[in-house]
Amino acid sequence: MSRTRNRRRRSAVAAEPETKGATATVRELTTAERAFYGEGAELVVPGSVEELREVVRDASERRRLIVPAGLGRHAYLGNPPPVEPLVVSLARIGRVVRYEPADFTVGVEAGTSLETLGETLAENGQEIAVDWSLESAGTIGGAVAADLFGPRRARRGTFRNVVIGIAGMRDDGVNYRAGGMVVKNVAGYDVGKLLVGSLGTMGFILEINFKLRPLPAVRDCRLASFESSDAAWRFVAEVRDDFIEPAAMCVLDPAATKALASAGTGVRSRGWSVVWLLEGNDGTVDTLAARLEALVGGQATGVTAFDGDHVHAALEWLTAFSEPGDCAACDLAIVRLAALPTALAALERDVSAAAGSAGARSSVLLDAAAGVATVRLRGKPDSLAEAIGAITSSLVSHGASGRLLFAAPDVRQRREYLLVPDANARLGRRIRQVFDAAGIFHPARVLGTVGGPR
Amino acid sequence: MLWNKTRRRTSPAAPFDELLGWIPPDRLLLDPAELRVYECDGLPLHKRPPAAVVLCASREDVVQTVEWCFRRSVPFTPRGAGTGLSGGATPSTGGVIIDCNRMRRILGVDPENRFAVVEPGVVNIKVSEAAAAHGLHYAPDPSSQKACTIGGNIAENSGGPHCLKYGMTTDHILGLDVVLPDGEVVSLGGPTADPGAYDLVGMFVGTEGTCGIVVEATVRLLPTPPSVRTYLAIFDAMNLACRMVARVTEEGILPAALEILDQNTIRAVEASVYAAGYPKDAAAVLLVEIDGVEAGLDEEERKIEEIAAECHAIELRSARDARERLDLWRGRKGAFGAMGRINADLYVLDGVVPRTRLEPVLGQIDGIARKHRVTISNVFHAGDGNLHPNISYDGRDTAERERVLAAGREILQACVDAGGSISGEHGIGIEKMDFIPMLFSEDDVQLMKDLRHAVDPRELSNPEKIFPDSRCCMEVGKRKFMRLSL
């Protein structure tokens, strides 16, 4: 059986907190940022919270639209701004402030790079149990604001489950803190929950404290091929009914399977497939692997066990499926849909049909445990816009919701970020205004309309 | 002194008989003798009777009552079983108690998608009982789970021994129907992932009734672990028990629960109906529970045995079956009840420290107990550093009561000084609102107050809770909401 085994610190003595200094690199606007915010957008990279406060107060006084940013890796998320904004990057405010391995907590500034953070934690056999793709590795503040997650969502949660404390800055330049540095804490309101996924519309995230988990000792990742969609979903239902709890379980349509096969993962399968990940100690993983092997036995046309680097490649691919990567091409759109896990199969059928009838090609990755479907669409802008519209129309009948994660600019201007309007938009706006009474943090990015005067 | 800070919001002559328009007479309590039952929750240090109690039996009862309160500017306080330990359900001045205990229907269980829809008055353990037939359970398990309600758990973001592995209430609430303080009903979240723009469910959980009343909740169900093993490690020194806690987590084991009882607690338990066979001369016992796939537990058990030996445990007992496991847990679950044997009243503290600071902070607590001549028994969620120093006292002794309050404050300050917090799972309520400045600056508190005012600008929903000085709330008007001209 092929496995990946993670390193684990054995010493009972806590490692010294590692503090990495802020990088002095002053970055430039990325291509994605220029495409999303407009060529006239400007960039500032404050070197301290005090400098940031000056920028925010000035913007507030002049009512200038500003966009909190890290390295600009997720500049495509949300509705585009109606005017070209000032992009304010926290990339220079990026220290690991406190790391207590023995307490399984870490506190970092928002500009800390995901790469640095991941490496620091891995040295002690620990992780923030949320997946982010290496391809999009920006800053931790950006990852939290974008609410990144990957295939382990159903079992490990999202950032909302691991943020234990947060510090931020409101539109008047006033800082605040909520939560703390302990893993269990109900003192005061849980402000951190609001900031996860807020896309910067609730002001700046300055610092974040996380609770950590030990890296799983062993990982086992496999792909089973099936002759049909029905066969794949039958297997998924059997796994669920058998109370086997893989760390991840995803269904891939034939297009997605093909893409996975060409991503250096060692997969040679075609058609429908199911990828699962097991995590734990040897005994746990052995038992679950045997149970899954028995279940999949007569149903699959083949099973591939990922080995070594292929495990990481496969997980990276699954995580990065919702990222546009370097593709600035006009022929890509990505939508993410959420439904009950038992509604996913029917939703996928309707979505694929809708895409096809609009003349778009689709590939679909379905997180069968979390009830999340990510759809990559390819086609001409008109086809993409029509496909997104048709997909949106199909959501209500499945009790589903959706977000337009990425689209080329002229498609983006025709479709809103939230595919199904938020029934609580009024309440959401009232709460958002608490952080941004002046309305400078691109209020319409999450809850708003597109196609403004830009 | 506490009450002098608060503002009266309603005339004592509020026409409560108007409530009879939709509430039958037998569900509207106005008799002073009946109202005394509602003068406090599980925190007896602060008492005040409500002006009225409405026993709501439906969502419509709650909506109409809240609308009436809004029209009449009458403050209201939601209440479940009244088991809260921070005074969160203590009535406000001239206020109405909106009792949700009769809203106790489990509206549905979806075993395939693993959630249940329940009314707020459903008792915590009833959710797991309803889900058990499907091999599922509801994970948050406060010690009072046989009495406390889901609505109260949501208000307080309750924990319990097993939240070490499975998370707090907030991690298990998928959706909420909430009656806002003006009577509007909103449906937040739901059983699917991220249905709304912002995580309003996450914000609402733990607001202690200050943002409205839950009338329906969608809760996550988890598969019941296929195997569970429970151990009792016995120590002749508390510091060794704390060391074992640190070593277990260092080894990468994530137990379902890690609970410590000190000698005072052990003796109280063993003298009570909750006797679990803990050795009365032990300085501390540590309950360790692991769960998961049977084959995976062998490896963890080996490590636990090694660590127990390394930490000089006198003995490591292992529950051989479900009955023995329940026996071991009976003492822990009944610990608070058993403390009634020590004295008439009990003040349960709820500080949190980083788990590596357990040992020094417990030492400080010992010193504080001696300094103030109070009896403290410790029973706590050691795995996540959540201390429960329990001060036994006689509430009729005014001088002792003052010493208890002073000791409590010093203990919580010690927790904060160690990098911790003043509440891990009980909430701030009335009990700790004056301690909030230990943790948060004025700017921090102002943000939270502003959030509250975005939902409840008139402070009608459970006022005089959480925030240290409710008069400051008027400052919210200073922030002008402007629209960006573009």
Question: Could you characterize what this model shows?
Answer:
The complex is a heterodimer of chains A (454) and B (486). Chain A is α+β, with helices and mostly antiparallel strands and 454 residues long. In chain A, 30% of the residues lie in helices and 22% in strands. Chain B is of the alpha+beta class.
Write the layout of secondary structure elements.
The complex is a heterodimer of chains A (454) and B (486).
Chain A: E1 4-5, H1 31-37, E2 42-44, H2 49-62, E3 66-69, E4 86-89, E5 96-100, E6 105-109, H3 114-122, E7 126-127, H4 140-146, H5 153-156, E8 163-169, E9 175-179, H6 191-195, E10 204-211, E11 213-214, E12 218-226, H7 229-241, E13 248-252, H8 254-261, E14 272-280, H9 282-296, E15 302-305, H10 309-320, E16 332-338, H11 344-357, E17 361-367, E18 372-378, H12 381-395, E19 401-407, H13 409-412, H14 425-435
Helix pairs in contact in A: 11-12
Chain B: E1 28-29, H1 32-35, E2 52-55, H2 59-72, E3 76-79, E4 96-99, E5 106-110, E6 115-118, H3 124-132, E7 136-137, H4 150-156, H5 163-166, E8 173-179, E9 185-189, H6 200-204, E10 213-220, E11 222-223, E12 227-235, H7 238-250, E13 257-262, H8 263-270, E14 284-292, H9 294-310, E15 315-318, H10 322-333, H11 335-338, E16 345-348, H12 358-372, E17 375-381, E18 389-393, H13 398-417, H14 436-439, H15 442-455
Parallel strand pairs in B: 2-4, 3-4
Antiparallel strand pairs in B: 1-2, 5-6, 6-10, 7-11, 8-9, 8-10, 12-14, 12-15, 13-14, 13-17, 16-18, 17-18
- Tell me roughly what share of residues is in helical segments of chain A: 25-40%
The biggest chain-chain interface is: A-B, 94 and 94 residues
Number of strands of chain B: 18
Query: β content of chain B, as a range?
Result: 15-25%
Distance between the termini of chain A: 57 Å
Based on CA inertia axes, which overall geometry of chain B fits? globular
Largest sheet of chain A, in brief, is: 9 strands, antiparallel
Report mean pLDDT of chain B, rounded to a whole number: 92
